[in-house]
């Protein structure tokens, strides 16, 4: 062994004392406390230091967390702030360094010209600051938990109450009366779903008879059932789609109650001029074939009564008197 390599090894061994968390995996993947606080370093000795390498040799980082170890080693110390914050320094947090179409293409699925990235007008590539609006302190363990992986936004009473369902998170911004400061939705009509959906939520997505009105559409796939609320994200994707209104453009970006095999086919979805038949047919499969129920909606699936036309005259977000939506 050369003298240079021996010196490098001895240096690594000496520095490894700074990175001796024997329970690293449990700390990182179970506790979820990834954002460094003022006690970093045991007694705060490391708080405010920008040089991660001073205590954490790259070759030793996350040796007990194989799912991210290789990514961290590949990206280097630039990736630290994405999970652990700035450590009391003004360093910016790096998210898309790893979460991008090349390195983590399905975390999340985010291709498409339309995205929920708060960039207007038009769409620029997703930037780190947009990620942090919704995911300020994710535990990065690969399992999505609405009360761990989503930023806790204030409710109608100004309290940061837990989310009972994923749609609760959406409604904390999409409302008329208690928008989040800095993310107010303005210049839209009173009944625009962007702000009206909170009022309409007791009707929305209860497909079929609602409060005794309307009619039941005969036929649903898998575990979708009538008189149940479907998550906003079953039809709308946050991270990227080709469709307007953030409608999913493939089944594996939404439709959560479909079987894994069917959902991950994935079935394409194209919406245009009010024709949402390719979206509806993901979950609807008419048992009694009426009207155009045996017509291919254009994505290889059949089962909806109208293909190629505008669905909106009869199916509107939050309408109590119609059969669905």
Compact description:
The chain is mostly helical and about 325 residues long.
Fold and architecture overview:
With 325 residues, the chain is mainly α. It has 3 domains: 14-84, no CATH class; 152-201, no CATH class; 215-325, no CATH class. Helix content is 21%, strand content 0%. The protein has helices at residues 3-15, 24-31, 66-75, 80-84, 128-134, 146-149, 166-171, 193-200, 260-263, 277-280. It is elongated, with a radius of gyration of 24 Å. Residues 3-30 have low confidence and may be disordered.
Secondary-structure blueprint of this entry?
Elements: H1 3-15, H2 24-31, H3 66-75, H4 80-84, H5 128-134, H6 146-149, H7 166-171, H8 193-200, H9 260-263, H10 277-280
Key phrases:
325 residues; 10 helices
Secondary structure: number of strands: 0
Q: How many structural domains can be distinguished in the coordinates?
A: 3
Oligomer: single chain
Described by strand count, sense and barrel closure, the largest sheet is: none
Order of helices and strands: HHHHHHHHHH
Shape: elongated
What structural class results from the helix and strand content?
Answer: mainly alpha
Strand content: under 5%
Rg over CA atoms: 24 Å
* Residue share in helix: 10-25%
* Separation, N- and C-terminal Cα atoms: 71 Å
Unreliable segments (pLDDT under 50, ≥5 consecutive)?
Answer: 3-30
Number of helices: 10
> Quick check: average pLDDT?
82
């Amino acid at each position: 062994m050369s003298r240079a390599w021996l010196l490098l090894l001895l240096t690594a061994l000496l520095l490894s004392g700074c990175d001796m968390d024997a329970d690293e995996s449990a700390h990182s993947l179970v506790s979820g406390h990834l954002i460094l606080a003022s006690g970093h370093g045991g007694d705060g000795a490391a708080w405010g230091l920008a040089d991660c390498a001073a205590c954490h040799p790259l070759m030793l980082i996350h040796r007990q967390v194989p799912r991210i170890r290789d990514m961290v080693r590949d990206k280097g110390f630039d990736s630290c702030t994405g999970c652990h914050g700035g450590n009391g320094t003004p360093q910016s947090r790096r998210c898309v360094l790893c979460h991008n179409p090349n390195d983590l293409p399905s975390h999340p699925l985010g291709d498409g010209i339309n995205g929920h990235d708060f960039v207007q007008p038009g769409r620029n590539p997703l930037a780190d600051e947009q990620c942090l609006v919704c995911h300020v302190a994710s535990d990065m363990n690969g399992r999505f938990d609405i009360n761990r992986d989503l930023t806790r936004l204030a409710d109608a009473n100004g309290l940061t109450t837990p989310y009972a369902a994923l749609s609760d998170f959406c409604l904390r911004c999409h409302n008329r009366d208690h928008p989040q400061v800095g993310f107010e939705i303005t210049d839209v009509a009173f009944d625009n779903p962007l702000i009206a959906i909170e009022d309409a939520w007791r009707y929305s997505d209860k497909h079929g008879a609602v409060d005794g009105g309307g009619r039941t559409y005969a036929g649903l796939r898998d575990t979708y059932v009538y008189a149940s609320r479907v998550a906003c994200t079953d039809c709308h994707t946050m991270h990227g789609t080709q469709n307007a209104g953030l409608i999913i453009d493939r089944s594996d970006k939404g439709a959560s109650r479909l079987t894994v095999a069917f959902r991950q086919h994935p079935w394409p979805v194209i919406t245009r001029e009010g024709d949402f038949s390719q979206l509806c047919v993901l979950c609807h499969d008419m048992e009694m074939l009426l009207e155009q129920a045996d017509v291919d909606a254009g994505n290889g699936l059949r089962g909806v009564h109208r293909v190629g036309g505008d669905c909106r005259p009869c199916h509107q977000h939050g309408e109590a008197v119609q059969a669905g939506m």
